[in-house]
């Protein structure tokens, strides 16, 4: 045996290992192959190959494991059980950048599925190794590490607190400054995932100066980056007034409003979500948004999109209107009510309808003027329909009842109240009749109109229990009219007349 | 005597009476004493009641006086407070109407708001329009460059004088637009053209993105223009390794070519005499402008001139 032949044997072995690993990695791309691979015991085969002497084999094996874990959570659990993670984490610190990338991918794939799996990654010291990777020079490694950290932090407060404790936030903020677009995106999304849980975590992100960098990137033309940036800003500002004020102070506003016309629909949605989160805290913040034309832009946005994308916009209008009557007036002046009516008629899902109904209630419940604005868009009938509709969800019914009640208690515009006298359950009718009883004594024209349009007749037909508030309101209405008219319109009056005719004896 | 006896009997009787009375008195003494005591006590009681009556009357009157005072004070306070409420009511109404719920301020605010909304809406519409135009323009430029590239690749399908091409069907009233494009595009060997075409695709949208032209014709004309003009400027030695990064390749080439001419000593070429003779001979034999072709020195100058490819005389000479 010559030396060449001996070496050839080794070369052949290495080649076939490489081929095996590469084939498995290629097969693992397709989700339908996973089950067969799993039943063939792929993990136990790949595990020794991850400790191979040849770096490229190691790397490809890690890639294969990552892809397998990415597709099914069973395999991800198997990866944890096979004790692959500790050796991955150990080699994450020592190996070259390609291997680091693959290892971070495995960690990400494992952590993605559930909090328990993420906890397993944390338990074997994955976070510290990933944070070390964030200090790497190569942007690809940074990206993979940031991505894995984001997936870990996404699950719950505890995990995201451990990411913060490992000191990831300053490095992530630095990643925002890198020129690579992909890295920026991932860093922004990770920051968003970290800050979404508690005010303290969001405060940590803010303390590291993330807001200024995020605000600068609003002007970036890349749509996917903008999505993440707006999502991060909204997650930061949702927690408290002071955080929301800091976001406003970073001067995101005019640019953010301009982004409502972005071609990408998710950018627009995230901008609207940001506005909703800003607006919900205080009247002052809402005033700032209203003053820079945010409501008008959001209302236009509601006209452009449909479905779930509308939800944040609808809620934002409700939040603005809930704060004070002048803000509600601003929403009305921005032509918000017709747009909400449109949403109510176009959308089919009950939770969106419920949100719309809530917003309408918030707009209409301040003063008679507001109620009139709502009533002129013919919304009272629609609210009643939603309330009466048996197929509406419980939440929707409750919300529409509340909105209807609060608007009716302010509404003094009688022509729109009259249709509500017919076919209405008594708990709503009570409020309608109450409004009539309040207005009619002071308005002679309305009294005349009330008689000629048949409202009085309808009121006489109402059967109310004596002593109930409804009966009291009816009595109040009756006392505004001469007795004969009231009698004329009472049911059974014609029979009484005929009876008198029969009893009458001409002299 | 009788009188004495009478007297004695009277005395006797008197004594009896006396005893009787004494005994009676003795019997009643306790009772009388008690009665006397009672009378005295009742007398004392009467006096005490008088004292108490007067005292109570005094204290009650004092208390009543206090009560009246307090009631009067309360009445006064109520009155003052009512007046204070009246003043405060007026003042607060005035203040709120003046400063907080000022009708005119509210009106002007709402007007300003609606104006601002209109402005924002218009600006956003403009912005959208602008972005849309920009995107459309980029799209168009991309399409045009792809078309031109396609035309380069399909140049062999151009119709000739003898035989109409695929795009120039005789059954059509007018030739296909591709045919027109093919006529405008120069043919080049695909091996050399392929990388250049790709470079063209990549490089063109960059500078065009900033200044987007609104018309359809302009990007097309520009692309063909760059395709034509860039080609002749390159020296025909592309296969050779280029000189340096510091100077333009054309400049280097020019230097190389011009080097012998620039020397002041050698105004004329070494073979000038021979050439002149040659030229004369050619003029004599063929009276054609193509005679220039043979001259050596002229060739040098022509080689880097911009009209190298497009000179009509050059092509004519081959016929």
From TrEMBL, chain A:
The gene is spag6. Important for structural integrity of the central apparatus in the sperm tail and for flagellar motility. Interacts with SPAG16 and SPAG17. It comes from Cottoperca gobio. One of its GO terms (biological process) is neuron projection extension. GO terms for molecular function: microtubule binding. InterPro entries: ARM-like, ARM-type_fold, Armadillo. This is Sperm-associated antigen 6. It is found in: Cell projection, Cilium, Flagellum; Cytoplasm, Cytoskeleton, Cilium axoneme. Pfam families: Arm. Keywords: Cell projection, Cilium, Cilium biogenesis/degradation, Cytoplasm, Cytoskeleton, Flagellum, Microtubule, Repeat. PANTHER family: SPERM-ASSOCIATED ANTIGEN 6, SPERM-ASSOCIATED ANTIGEN 6 ARMADILLO REPEAT-CONTAINING. Transmembrane segments: none annotated. GO terms for cellular component: acrosomal vesicle; axoneme; extracellular region; microtubule; sperm principal piece.
From TrEMBL, chain B:
Residues 110-144 form a coiled coil. It comes from Cottoperca gobio (Frogmouth). CDD domains: IQCD (cd23767). Keywords: Coiled coil. Pfam families: IQ (PF00612). This is LOW QUALITY PROTEIN: spermatogenesis-associated protein 17. PROSITE patterns: IQ. SMART domains: IQ. InterPro entries: IQ_motif_EF-hand-BS (IPR000048), P-loop_NTPase (IPR027417). The lineage of its organism: Eukaryota, Metazoa, Chordata, Craniata, Vertebrata.
């Amino acid at each position: 045996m010559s030396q060449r032949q001996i070496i050839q044997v080794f070369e052949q072995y290495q080649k076939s290992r490489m081929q095996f690993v590469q084939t498995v990695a290629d097969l693992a791309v397709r989700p339908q192959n996973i089950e067969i691979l799993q039943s063939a015991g792929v993990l136990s085969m790949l595990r020794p190959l991850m400790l191979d002497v040849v770096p490229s084999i190691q790397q490809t094996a890690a890639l294969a494991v990552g892809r397998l874990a990415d597709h099914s959570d069973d395999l991800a659990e198997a990866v944890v059980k096979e004790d692959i993670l500790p050796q991955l984490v150990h080699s994450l610190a020592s190996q070259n950048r390609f291997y680091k990338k693959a290892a971070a991918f495995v960690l990400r794939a494992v952590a993605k599925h559930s909090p328990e799996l993420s906890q397993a990654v944390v338990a074997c010291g994955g976070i510290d190794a990933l944070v070390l990777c964030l200090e790497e020079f190569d942007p690809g490694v940074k990206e993979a590490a940031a991505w894995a950290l984001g997936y870990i932090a996404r699950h719950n407060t505890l995990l995201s607190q451990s990411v913060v404790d490992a000191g990831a936030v300053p490095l992530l903020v630095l990643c925002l400054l890198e020129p690579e677009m992909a890295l920026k995106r991932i860093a922004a999304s990770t920051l968003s995932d970290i800050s979404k849980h508690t005010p303290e975590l969001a405060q940590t992100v803010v303390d590291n100066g993330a807001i200024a960098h995020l605000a600068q990137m609003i002007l970036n033309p890349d749509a996917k980056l903008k999505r993440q940036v707006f999502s991060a800003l909204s997650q930061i500002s949702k927690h408290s007034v002071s955080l929301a004020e800091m976001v406003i102070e970073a001067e995101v506003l005019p640019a953010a409003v301009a982004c409502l016309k972005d071609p990408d629909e998710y950018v627009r949605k995230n901008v609207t979500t940001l506005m909703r989160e800003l607006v919900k805290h205080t009247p002052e913040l809402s005033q700032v948004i209203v003053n820079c034309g945010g409501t008008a832009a959001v209302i236009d946005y509601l006209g452009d999109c449909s479905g779930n994308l509308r939800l944040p916009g609808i809620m934002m209008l409700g939040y603005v209107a809930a704060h004070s009557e002048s803000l509600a007036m601003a929403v009305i002046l921005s032509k918000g009510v017709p747009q909400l009516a449109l949403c109510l008629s176009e959308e089919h899902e009950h939770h969106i309808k419920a949100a719309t109904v809530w917003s309408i209630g918030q707009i209409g419940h301040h003063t008679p003027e507001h109620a009139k604005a709502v009533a002129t868009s013919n919304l009272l009938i629609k609210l009643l329909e939603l309330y009466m509709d048996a197929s509406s969800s419980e939440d929707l019914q409750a919300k529409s009842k509340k909105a209807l009640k609060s608007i009716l208690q302010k509404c003094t515009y009688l022509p729109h109240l009259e249709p509500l006298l017919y076919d209405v359950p008594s708990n709503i009718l009570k409020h309608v009749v109450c409004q009539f009883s309040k207005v009619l004594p002071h308005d002679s024209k309305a009294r005349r109109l009330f008689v000629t349009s048949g409202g009085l007749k309808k009121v006489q037909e109402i059967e109310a229990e004596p002593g109930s508030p409804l009966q009291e309101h009816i009595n109040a209405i009756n006392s505004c009219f001469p007795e004969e008219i009231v009698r004329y319109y009472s049911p059974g009056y014609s029979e009484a007349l005929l009876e008198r005719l029969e009893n009458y004896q001409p002299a | 005597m009788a009188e004495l006896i009478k007297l004695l009997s009277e005395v006797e009787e008197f004594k009896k009476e006396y005893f009787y009375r004494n005994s009676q008195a003795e019997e009643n003494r306790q009772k009388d004493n008690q009665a006397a005591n009672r009378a005295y006590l009742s007398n004392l009681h009467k006096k005490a009641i008088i004292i108490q009556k007067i005292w109570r009357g005094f204290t009650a009157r004092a208390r009543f006086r206090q009560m009246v005072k307090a009631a009067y004070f309360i009445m006064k306070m109520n009155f003052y407070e009512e007046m204070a409420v009246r003043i405060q009511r007026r003042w607060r109404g005035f203040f709120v109407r003046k400063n907080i719920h000022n009708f005119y301020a509210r009106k002007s605010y709402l007007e300003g708001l609606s104006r601002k909304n209109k402005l924002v809406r218009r600006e956003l519409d403009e912005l959208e329009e602008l972005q849309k135009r920009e995107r459309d323009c980029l799209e168009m430029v991309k399409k045009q460059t792809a078309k031109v590239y396609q035309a380069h690749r399909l140049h062999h399908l151009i119709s000739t004088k003898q035989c109409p091409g695929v795009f120039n069907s005789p059954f059509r009233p007018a030739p296909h637009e591709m045919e027109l494009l093919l006529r405008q595009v120069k043919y080049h060997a695909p091996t050399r053209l392929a990388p250049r075409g790709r470079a063209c695709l990549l490089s063109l949208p960059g500078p065009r993105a900033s200044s987007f032209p609104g018309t359809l014709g302009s990007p097309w004309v520009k692309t063909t223009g760059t395709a034509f003009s860039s080609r002749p400027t390159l020296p025909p030695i592309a296969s050779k390794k280029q000189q340096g990064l510091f100077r333009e390749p054309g400049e280097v080439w020019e230097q190389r070519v011009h080097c012998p001419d620039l020397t002041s000593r050698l105004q004329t070429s070494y073979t000038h005499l021979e050439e002149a003779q040659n030229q004369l001979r050619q003029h004599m034999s063929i009276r054609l402008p193509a005679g220039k072709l043979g001259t050596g020195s002229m060739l040098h100058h022509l080689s880097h001139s911009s009209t190298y490819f497009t000179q009509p005389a050059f092509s004519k000479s081959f016929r």
